[in-house]
Amino acid sequence: MLELLLLISVIALFLWHRKLSDQVRSLESTVQSLRQQIEAGATVPLPETGTAEAEAAAEAGVPQGEDVPAVQEAARDMVSDPEPMVSEGAPASQPKPRESFESRFGARWSVWVGGLALALGGIFLVRYSIDAGLLGPAARLVLATLFGLLLAGAGEVLRRGALPRLPKAYTGAMIPGVLTAAASITLIATTYTAYGVYGFIGATPAFLLLALISLATLALSLLHGQALAGLGLAASLITPALVASDAPKITFLFGFLSLVWLAAAGAARIRRWHVLPVLANLGLALWVIAYALGADVLDPVPPGAALLVLIAGTGFLWPGLAFETGGEEAPSDPWRRLRALLGRRPRTILCSASLSAFFAILCLTVIDTPSTTHPALMLTAVAGALAGLGAGRRAGAIPALFAALTAVLGTLLIAVTQMAIATPPATAVGSGLLGGIGPSILGALTLGAIITLCSLVFQHRKGMDDPDLGALWALLASAVPISLATITFLNEGTLGRDWLHGIYGLAIGAALLATVERLWRRDRIAPLAADLLLLGAFAAFTFTLHALTHGLVTTLGVAALGFAFVLTTRLRPLRGLPWAMVLAAIVIGARIAWEPTVVGPDALGKTPVFNALLAGYGVPAALLIASAFLLRDWPGRRLVNALQGLAALAGLLAVSILVRHAMNGGVLDELVPTLGEQSTYTLLLIGLSGILMTLDTKAPSLTFRVLSMLAGVIATLNILSAHLFVLNPFFSNEGIGTWPVVNLLLPGYLLPALGYAGLALYARDRRPKAYVMMLSLTGAVLAFLWATLSVRWFWQGPNIGDWKGFLPAETYTYSVVWLLIGVGLLALGSRLDARSLRLASAGLVLISVCKVFLIDMSNLEGILRALSFMGLGGVLIGIGLFYQRILARSHEAAPPAGD
Question: What is the pTM of this model?
Fold first, then answer.
């Protein structure tokens, strides 16, 4: 009974659809006639009320019941703005039907529901015959096949003219296409039932029939639209899953999937479809991933070949070389914008193809399954094909990036997998140039060379036409091959001396340099691309040095290489050349951080100054200083500032490491430095600040200005942390020495105090007042500490640790010395007009007052207590008189009020 009701409903919907189609066609004819009369200037009579024409005019916004000129004016407005009536992609003269609920239900939903009903009807008919036992299996299958063929024939008859021609807005709901889709579903279900349920046909005939039906559906989609093509594609992709086999032939499987992909891409190319190829790309990738996850023994060649078909078809078939970057205005509605991105832009096809190949080949690469072929070979082929796809297009950034990600990530995952399984044996040094080359090394190096070649080809052909993509390719040309070579070198190479990797890096660098030179001579290279290629060549040569040398030779070689690029600026004014020296400084800094001794602790000599540290630290510093001097007039101030800063840092580091080595018996360790060593570092920072300030005075530079103040700030932080607390002999109980004045307190406190005083005096009117005040106060604190600790040395001897306590005479001496220092600072501050010194004096006097009242009153007795208070009172009175004089002098010098 249910099937009969469905059939009656389908017939009723069909008749209703025919009636609605006639009405729509009549309305379109009326509107077109009105447009022609208005354009001809004729008078247009108002339609009678209640007619279809009146309803059309009302829907169009024409007022009813007014005179003819008003109607004509409204109609002219409609003609002058025809955009709402024009369907997308149709000529401006073709009106677009207004979508209402009635039109949507009659022209769209009824067709779709009807098609579904027909497909279900065929299935239910077979089901009913089974339940009722009316016919045998063979007869039921024959009837279902005939029903499917009947539906296909009906769709073709209706397509040839039995139905009225609908506007483009309803092409997605064309009845012939729906009938054809129902026929395809019915035939597929019938074929699978004959194979899977009754066993009338074997696996091979079933597969062939299903493939034939699916491909035929794809072919018919050229007549019926993209929706039918999607159905054919889905049927083709699930056909191998429906037909099971005990020993599936993987080559045949992926050959069939490749054929399906080519059929879908060909149909999309003919009809300019954009959704179908995206679905085909994703479907093929899912099959590759499913095979990789389910195979007992992996054969990566057939799925890899299928991925190569996908990439090659995307490059040559659809969208091919005629890639359109777009340019049309994006819709305001987010859903329409998403639909435009996914359905109308060829860029989406590129992205889906690249993404599908990326995930599929990575899954084939890292799957933990025995493989008949090393996965690195297919990784090389697929990533290289992606690189070629990106290099041959105007907008190949997406394939280029995915090629780089595939290459680097896939090689890294292979290396990690090999390390997890077993550590590969190291290749012997004398095994020859090509000895020990495995598939991983061969695939990675080949892939890097392919990407470099693609980049250079793009630079020669289209580098100037698309500078942004040219810059991207220039970056990939060096980053990808060097990354791949580094991975394989660290994983399987000979760390002592690897000729294969060394020559590889040398060849990559030479190719990049030659390309820059040739294109620069022709004025055919963008500046950013040239910079990236030059820095890539430096990176390749640096990799060669690491592959062929080690230790001190590598460090000196990197420094010399960077300086060679700097010298080349005399011949070629390329802005990327001097930045190689900056990269060289970074590489050397990383090497020093990894191994501070440069040559290893065992090989480092103990001779002060003249050892490997002098070359390892001194030569790079000297070359950086020379580079900064040679490029002092370089137009790029950022580069000059960077080189000047690195030169200052390298020079300070070289001197500091030599001091450390000399003061620790020729050993570099992590022990906390002594006060004498730390004082040397502080004096070096003070001297560096003065030198940079002098350089800034002679040749104004932001780098010199900032670094000079930074050196002073760092030295001050050293004072506050090390000199005052951590390394203070009062807390560390370090021996000072037996000689007066010439002992540890001299370099530890007095010399830095004098250095700060001189630096503050030199910085006046050259640096901010706050910075000068910081220097002055720091020098005053150091002088105060030197005097205080000298008093303790006088009373306690070479060891002045706090565990000894304080003597009464020692306590009184502190008060006397502090007051004398305060008075001296006050006099000096007044003479130099240094407010910071006067403030330091006031602070020191305040400390002395607090000490006398809080400490001396309780600890001193007799004459010492009296002398302490008498001296304090006399000093305070003298200070008061001194300030009164200063204030009186200032009052006399002040101008009259209101002047």
Answer: 0.70
